[in-house]
Amino acid sequence: MKTILHLTCDFPDPLVGAKTRCVVSLIDNTPGFRHVVYSLNRANWRSNIVALPFGPDRTAVAYGAPPKGLMLETRLLALSRWIERDLAARNIAPDLVHAHKLTVEGLIAHDLFRRRGIPYVASIWGDTDLKFLAMRRDLRPRWQEVMAKAARLLPIAPWTAERFIADFALDRGKVETLLPIVNHETSHPSTLAEQPRFATLFNLDVHRRKNLRGLIAALAEVRRDDDRVTLDIWGAGGAETLCDIEAMIDKAGARGFVRLMGRFDWSPEAVRRLNGYTAFVLPTSRESFGMVFVEALFCGLPVLYTRGWSIDGLYPAERIGYAWDGKSNEDIARGLRHLIANEKTIKASIDELARGGALDQLKRQAIIARYTGILETATGPAAPAPDRAPA
Asked: How far apart are CA 334 and CA 214, in angstroms?
């Protein structure tokens, strides 16, 4: 069985449990490999490295480093040497390293490649990686080397692939989009809303990054044309966040037509309720992908997303909703009006995509097949499943 070493800052562990499960989903669904995970957690203004095992082949690591990318390469190279020693002490010889973020874990993977010759693949998360590239322009030559030496580069969205290919003159043949696995992937036929009703769903604590203020302002503008239009805000957040959002609603004069709905549990009843909205809207300023957009499409809902970010490039915008320009709140209002006026047409289009299999690329089975192929290309065939004999 081939051994894959995963370097990731996004893996739930005893140090930080509330992390995305994207990496967990990839690992859990590719059992033909041995997956060794180092879950990385930066400790502000510390200099030491501390490890805490939390399962077979699972190690949570706290490593000291300043914030805002200061001493980024220096501290990550020290962490690379620590991981190298720890692997040797545990008698683990990886066949491949998967760095789950180009600009952070990619520096460690590249160092292991230089020192030990271990090939690596690197995921690219558009928003985060672009922020690091802008913040530490002095490291751009190093990151270009990381990309040049990677066996495969795995952007998580089509727009990310196109942007990095253009900005860094990458070989398109070594770039392969690997979408995140979503939790809800059962297609539901669209239904027409009884009145113009919009839904949004996110972690309320990051409402500024999700441009909730701009969305509420746009909705208030659209209500001047049709006072039936409403917005339901799904999601949970802290006490201060709830107070801030309620104050924002009051300041916009939106009391009564913008409502906080609480946590969304993705139960069959909740999905049916979501299915009854006109559209799902989330005009985030910057977004690497946004798995909730995919889940909304599976619920038969048109989506308002950000042009040049998020799920842009998966399908033509007119087939699934509206891509706002990311700068103008007036364009959010145009998008809301477009979704109201074209609800029937767009929902019919989404149903057609689902029936024709065009949404299948977003499902777990397709994503895992692609990931397995990437691993097998780099390491050789996966081990057969335990319940079947080798061919």
From this structure: 13
Which DSSP letter does residue 225 get? T
Residue 175 CA to residue 22 CA, distance in Å, equals 19
Checking 180-183 for CB contacts under 8 A at 24+ apart, the result is 180/22, 180/25, 180/156, 180/289, 180/291, 180/367, 181/22, 181/25, 181/26, 181/29, 181/364, 181/367, 181/368, 182/291, 182/294, 182/295, 182/298, 182/362, 182/364, 183/266, 183/291, 183/295
Domain 3-182+363-379 and domain 197-358, same fold? Reply is: yes
Q: Which two tokens stand for residue 151?
A: 């066996």
pTM (predicted TM-score):
0.93
| pLDDT tens sequence across 300-312 | 999 999 999 999 9
Reading the block at residue 202, the tokens are: 């996110």
Assigned architecture for domain 197-358: 3-Layer(aba) Sandwich (3.40)
- For residue 53, the surrounding DSSP H or E stretch is strand 49-55
The ranges assigned to domains in the chain are 3-182+363-379, 197-358
pLDDT tens column, 220-229: 999 999 999 9
